[in-house]
Amino acid sequence: MARLRPQEEGPCGRDLRAAPQPGRSSMAEQAPPPHPRILYIEDNPESRTLVRNVLEARGFDVLEASDGIAGIDLAISAHPDLILCDIEMPGIDGYETATRLRSYRGLDGCPIVVLTSHGDRGLSLSIGCDGYIEKPIDVEKFPGQLREFLKGKREKVKTAEERRYLREYSQSLVERLEATVRELTAANSRLRAAARSKTEFMQNLSHELATPLTPITGYLKILKSEKTGPMTEPQRRILDSMQTASERLSRTIDNLVDFATLESGGYAIHRDTFDPRTAAKAVIEEEKPKAKARRITLELVAEPLPETGWGDERKLKQALGNVIDNAIKFSPHGSHVLVRVSADNQRLSFEVYDQGEGMLAEEAEKVFDPFFHADRVGDERAPGAGLGLPVAKQIIEAHGGKISAESPPKNQPESKSHFSGTRVSFWIPLRPHPPKEPQPTVLHESAPEGGTS
Q: What is the pTM of this model?
C-alpha cells in the first residue's frame, strides 16, 4: 500500500480519509503503514543499537534521541508513527517526557509505549502512555508487539488505580518542585555572597592602588613646576610620560571604585547645574596627551548649547572621558576622533566617532558588559580592565539617559573626515530653562603641535 500524500495524513501518519479517528481508549483496529516510523528515546547507546537493528530488519524506520528534550523536539518535527520511551534518563525522565508529548495536539493519535527495565506500569499508563514493555526485549516478539499498538491496541488501568497513580505522581512532582526551589534559593545565596566578595575585593584593590598613587601624582606636579630645580627637555618628556601613565591608572581606579559601588547598590548621583560646553572642553584637554602620543586628531564640535545642563558634572565628565579614551585606544595611529555635543529642548547629547576597524553587530551590545574584550587577530594593544564603557553606561542610566554603539555610523557628523569605525552616543535629560541667546553655530577646538585638531 502506497503511503498517503501529506495532506491526507494525520499528525502521526494516520489516514484522515478513513473512519473517524479513535481516541486513546479505542480498540478499533487500524491498518499500520508499510514502513512504520518509530522514534526511540533512550540514553543508552547499546539499547538504541539493539532496537534499531531488530526493527530495521523487520521493515521499520527508526529515529533516535538520547534524552527527553531531544526526543520531544524530534517527535514534533518528524511525526513518528509510534514513540518508544525509556524511563530513567538524564534531565527529564520518561514520565515527564511522556506527559509533555501528550500535551502536543499534533501527537494526539501517536501511541507512546514505555520500554524500560525500571519503571511502573500503572503510573506509565495513568500519565498517558499506551503500552508498557519490559526489558530485555524478546527480539522475535518485539516487532509484533509494536505492530499491535500501531493497529490500535491500548493498555489500560482501572479508574481507581489511575486516580491513585496520578495522585502519587502529582505528589512526587510537588516534592521535586520544592527541592528545585530549595536548590535555587541556595544557589542564589551563594551568588549574592560571591558578588559581595567580588565587590569587597575591588574596593580593597582600588584603595591599595590609590594609596601609593596619590604621592606619586603630587611629586610629579612638584617636579614639573621646577620648584626643586630646572629640568632639561628630555627630563620633561619623561615626566610627561609618567604623568600620562599615572592619569590612566587614576582613571582605572575611578572605574574600579564606581563599578564596585554600583555592584553594591550604593551609587549616588549629585546633580547640579553645569556648563556642558566647558565640561566637554575640559575632557578634551584631559585626553589630548593620549591622542597626541598616537598622532590622533581629536576634534570637538559643539552645536548651539544651553548655558547650563543638569547632572553630576564630575561623573558625566568621567563617562565622556571613558568613551573618548576607548575611541583613542581602538583607533589607528594618525587617524581622527570627533566629539560632537548637541542639545534639543529635552536632551543633552554626546557622540564620539572614530576611524577604527569597528565592531561586529553582536559586539555593539556586549561592549557595555563588564570585562568584555573583543577578540581581534593580531591586535597588539594591551587589554584594559574592561570597565570604561560599562561604568559610562551606569553613570548615564543613573541620570535617566541612554548610551548605545553602532558600527559603522549610520550618519556622519559635520567634518572634513569620514568616520567608518564606531559611533558611541549617549544622552541625558535636559532640565527646562528659560530661552537663552543662541550660541555660535559650530565650535572647533584644535590641539597644538599637530597632535590633535
A: 0.51
